[in-house]
Amino acid sequence: ILFLVLITVSGKSEGSFVGITYVDGAVEKGAVCLDGSPPAYHLDLGSGAGANSWLVHVEGGGWCNNVTTCLARRDTRLGSSRRMATQIAFSGIFSNRPQFNPDFYNWNRVKVRYCDGASFTGDVEAVDPATKLYYRGARVLGAVIEDLLAKGMKNAENAVLSGCSAGGLTSILHCDAFKALLPVGTRVKCFADAGFFINARDVSGAAHINDFYNDVATTHGSAKNLPQGCTSRLKPGLCFFPQNVAQEIRTPLFIVNAAYDSWQIKNILAPGVADPHGTWHDCKTDITKCSKSQLQTMQDFRTQFLKSLNDGVGSSLTSTPSSKGYFINSCYAHCQTEMQETWFRSDSPLLNDKTIAEAIGDWFFDRNSFQHIDCAYPCDKTCHNRIFDPKDYSI
Known about the structure:
The protein is of the alpha/beta class and 395 residues long.
């Protein structure tokens, strides 16, 4: 909730509000959200030199891994386009002002709404009459892209598929498929913000996130829509981890991630199920409240994260250094591209003296390659470390 408030507040002064578009024609093709409602997105049209350039950015919001958790989402904005705000603030990477978004401000900027609970990988034909849940995420994304192609993206000179969190994972998993839909001459690249989730054990030693993704893949029938190079070798659930798929992606890919990603610390490293006595509650609320031993556990997590990153994109770097890029800072943060303060502002996080916006812009337009990893916490004084509501006991 705090994250959404921050977007709205920054949007009032540094962004604009953009209305929703429903892809009503997709319903007859079965391309629907969890509750059967149509796909939706927000589009702010480009202008001038950016009129034929497209940024397609996918909203985040976690996943649902079984009937119970998917039912809990179905009647929210994460499962139904009927529950979505009809106007949302466009700031950060969506801003239409050059002083806040120097490289993409005049592009066609799209925010794809997330309503399937499986990073747009699901496709189950059968619908249980008792729950009326539709697991059709792959069709939803396909319908949105088809609609955008018809609105001019088929003539794109430049195109990006990006996203935040579960949407960042979407941009990795669907990167090559997105490129294949665009003209051969189009410059197409993908980048993921806070989407590089790693297969780490939690503080109790359990493989919590691994088991969770296995359930997501089973519930949504994801196997056929995950990268085949991965599913031919590994169980479908393992193909939700970028460390197992990123190396095979042929389209240029950029990873923006905090090494101490706050969502991963809260939900992969120290989920409530692994911390029944709430020992980690204060630490997850505010990194400055972590004990020495908790900080050491988080440093170990960073080490695992960097190894997973290397497994995913490392060996690709030697052959084509500019095709894979990354901005890995040592902040306690999650999703840094959609908020103005962390995307491009005078006080934004820096790495190698570049903001995230500058690093991605340099990489996209081939001005400079960018592959930088921050020193370990707490060395980076430019971070905007997240502080959560201490009364939120789901932390």
